[in-house]
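#struct-help
A.M.: can someone run this one for me? Single chain, 461 residues.
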Amino acid sequence: MTESSVSAPLDQLKIAGRVLQPGQPGYAELATPWNVAVRNEPIAVVEAVSAADVAAAVRFACAHGLEVSVQATGHGATPSARPSLLVHTGRLTELEIRPDGTALAGAGVRWGDVLQAGAPLGLAGLAGSAPNVGVVGYLTGGGIGPVVRTFGVASDRVIAFEVVTGDGELRRATASENPALFWGLRGGKGALGIVTAVEFELVRLADLYGGCVYFDAENTSAILQGWSRWTEELPEQASSSVAILRMPPMPGVPEPLAGRVTVALRFAWVGDPAQGERVIAPMLALGRVVLGSMGVLPYAAIGAIHADPVDPMPAYESSGLLRSLPAEAVDQVVALAGPAEECPQIIVELRHLGGAFARPSEHPSAFDHRHAAYTVQTIGLGVPPVVEAVAGHGEALLNALHPWSTGGCLPNFAASNDPQAITRKYTSETLTRLATLATTYDPHGVIAAAGPVRAACLLAK
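D.P.: on it. Structure tokens below:
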């Protein structure tokens, strides 16, 4: 840390919320992200209770040569490179579900809150696979959920953002008011400021047909090959993913999954349940099911399809996008992650895209790569000494799939502040525009997430 950052007069930062320094009660709790493998030690945590608190923190950082990072749930956290203030937005919990089918959510609202509030009205937010994730962070990265092929990218349904930009100003961004910011906030993650609230459209959906089944790993190759062929013909009412799991034997892991290799098949069908049952039937015949079932689910229970972990954990992710998934590509996945292999990953997942995901937004945005047909993702423990094997294996898998890769990656997957990694999340044109906007609204480089975008822009040229 520089001398100026250490001696920054934090007593002059006047806000309604708390300003917590290292060693004070609450500091460690708020500074620790969901991914506990990411270690950050900000000079202070600003626990904002209003947008005015956020703006005050940004102006203070600008005056004292600090960066500002932001956290609500801490999913997608990255380490800070410079002395920084951490603005914690977890107490911005305003949530309004409107009769017209729209919602207003503060930056501290999680998708589970939206699902529960919307359910009595038959209104559904396009949550991701983990409802414990924050609404704002998810939407600024696009948003690819369990019904993405039916309803598209979640950020396409954003109406407005309230955002504090790097100059300390609170701005409203819509398709007609600050439209350049509106473009960049949908897909650009946190590069253009700290979002304090978001308004977005809901869909009218009370329930769906689907669920998750876990197969014994003995037929892994047949299941993955069958899934690849099956997804080629799926209508847009269907979204699906498949994953090879190696769940550790620990509390909370169901006995049929603990300490063994299984294959998870996830499925969501929007429409007639009987038709959905017919569509999924061929897949269910490909192996021996050891746990799980398909059936009609209330939309508010959509998190059960992926059953992502809720409790914080140390994680390391690798991710990529595929143009196609032919038999040869599936063979590569099985060769590196099948049940006979020494695979260090907890999960190796493939998600099917296309359908509504591929259609452009009514209002252009910074979300790229809509032409991709599948995502591939690996998740393992992000702690030494295993993290080295996890990272190396993830890279090896992506390299093996290179013949079918688009070369890209989605913003919400495999969080990183490495400029080289960020070049994979955007086209060079998008990076150039994001970097230009970041310089315009953050001339002193206060917003931490903007620095890697600027550096990535230079790499992409």
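A.M.: thanks! Residues 207-404 form a domain with the Vanillyl-alcohol Oxidase; Chain A, domain 3 fold (CATH 3.40.462.20).
D.P.: also worth noting: Residues 1-6 have pLDDT under 50 and may be disordered.
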